[in-house]
Design brief:
Elements lengths: L3 H4 L9 H11 L5 H13 L2 H28 L17 H32 L11 H25 L3 H8 L18 H22 L4 H19 L17 H11 L10 H5 L6 H20 L1
Helix pairs in contact: 2-3, 4-5, 4-9, 5-8, 6-8, 6-9, 9-10
Length: about 300
């Protein structure tokens, strides 16, 4: 890291993190406080792969379970039930506890290896994790591209997982809950977790390989937003302030909730365009459009 040459000589392996942070601030006054925290962490750990691995896993767990807690609370408050899509199927605390237990096991067995190996693979392709951080504009356009890339991967692999043998052997576990809730976002078999996780972790690496530009902070911002999207999509709640009401192409909870209820269609993760273009939308409105289209085709043939 760029700050290493300025500070490493003043440090030794016995110093605590706060001491390292103080030294970083002393020799790098041009950095903001968050950048100093970041630089001090890597200098303190003195093992970049370990530093990234620990930070990534802790961040993932805090965001995942932290985002689920509000939905668990809302399930117990009658006021919010009017926003519940399948209000007749409220998850019990036991169901949520059982789900959380399996998800936690999956995090340690299926996701931790991906998180751990991300740093050496990404740095091989040139990922930057130094300070100062990239501009917000750079982060924004890269994250927008990552959403499109991951959504494409998710659509095709998710759709493939609904093929008979693959569904029975891999994807069926995720459909245990026909009325999903936030914790169920990552309730899946290890194989599915790995396959769909490639889209989340692999898309940044592919973008990096193509453009030669990606910062670890951008990766963290992307993972955070993707986690929030996945949990919200599985939450079972469709609020008036949900993003889909302001961004029509956004999938949202209603889109994915229908997938769990009908067990087919609505395969995309973040956007609606793949399902729309390939006629794999689920629900009454989509069925009505297909029926009207078919009737129009029949009438056109008769008119010939």
């Amino acid at each position: 890291m760029d700050v290493a040459n300025a500070t490493f000589g003043a440090l030794n392996q016995t110093q605590g993190y706060l001491t390292v942070l103080e030294e970083v601030g002393k020799y790098n006054v041009h950095l903001n406080y968050f950048e100093r925290l970041w630089a001090a962490w890597y200098l303190y750990m003195q093992n970049d792969t370990l530093a990234t691995g620990i930070m990534s896993f802790v961040m993932h767990e805090v965001i995942y379970f932290g985002r689920c807690i509000p939905f668990i609370i809302m399930d117990k408050i009658p006021y919010f039930h009017k926003y519940k899509i399948q209000s007749q199927k409220m998850p019990t605390l036991k169901e949520q506890w059982d789900c959380a237990s399996i998800v936690l096991i999956s995090h340690f067995t299926a996701e931790l290896p991906q998180i751990w190996f991300f740093h050496p693979i990404a740095t091989y392709f040139g990922m930057d994790y130094s300070v100062p951080f990239p501009s917000l504009f750079t982060m924004a356009w890269q994250i927008a591209i990552l959403f499109v890339m991951e959504d494409t991967w998710h659509y095709w692999f998710h759709r493939a997982l609904h093929y008979g043998p693959l569904y029975r052997s891999i994807h069926k576990m995720h459909h245990l809950y026909s009325a999903p809730f936030g914790l169920a976002a990552e309730y899946a078999s290890p194989i599915e977790t790995a396959l769909l996780g490639i889209g989340v972790v692999g898309s940044p690496i592919l973008l990096l390989a193509i453009t030669g530009e990606l910062h670890l902070l951008t990766m963290y911002a992307w993972i955070t937003l993707r986690l929030l999207q996945a949990i919200d999509a599985h939450s079972g709640y469709d609020f008036p302030w949900s993003l889909r009401h302001f961004l029509p192409v956004w999938a949202g909870a209603d889109h994915h909730d229908m997938h769990h209820e009908k067990f087919i269609g609505n395969y995309a993760s973040s956007f609606r365009w793949w399902d729309y273009m390939l006629d794999t939308e689920a629900g009454a409105e989509a069925h009505k459009r297909r029926r009207e289209k078919k009737l129009a085709q029949i009438k056109a043939k008769k008119a010939q």
